[in-house]
Amino acid sequence: MHMDAHEVKTLNQLLEGQYMGIHSYDHFLEHLSEESSLYDTMTAINHDLERHASLLAARIEALDGVPLKSEGTMGTIQRWLGELFDRPHGEEDILKHAIKGENMYGIRMSEKIARQGLDEESLQLVHRIIDEQREHVDQLKKKLHH
Fold first, then answer.
1. Tens of pLDDT, residues 11-53
2. Any residues with CB less than 8 A from the CB of 41 and at least 6 apart, and which?
3. What's the structural domain count of the chain?
4. CB 9 within 8 Å of CB 72
5. Where in the numbering of this chain does the DUF2383 domain appear (predicted)?
6. Which structural domain range is residue 28 located in?
7. What is the pTM for the complete model shown?
């Protein structure tokens, strides 16, 4: 099978999004105590993102492409995290930020990328990831209204 450059580029964009997510959850977890009711939820979500990243990387390799090793545009996520951590923050702030991140950077970006013409197998993977990201938002919202 020859490499489909468009497919690989598109999947790498999604992979980059997962890395951004992992990076932000790592950051959230650093600001939570292990006793926090959020700690386990956020750890579990982070593991999901790591799993998504390895599934995407495997798919890219199956297409003879080279998966990215980290997120490229660190600027975006740093600015975005900066908005939260420059001021006092409690669990509610962190939750709202995580929900906004999942919605904006996770789901919306993934859906946009998914419309860029992927083959069937890649598309199924992407939709599975988007479904899990929606579940993350539901989990986080439950915590927020708890």
1. 998 998 898 889 889 989 988 999 998 999 999 999 999 999 9
2. 139, 140, 143
3. 1
4. no
5. 8-104
6. 5-144
7. 0.88
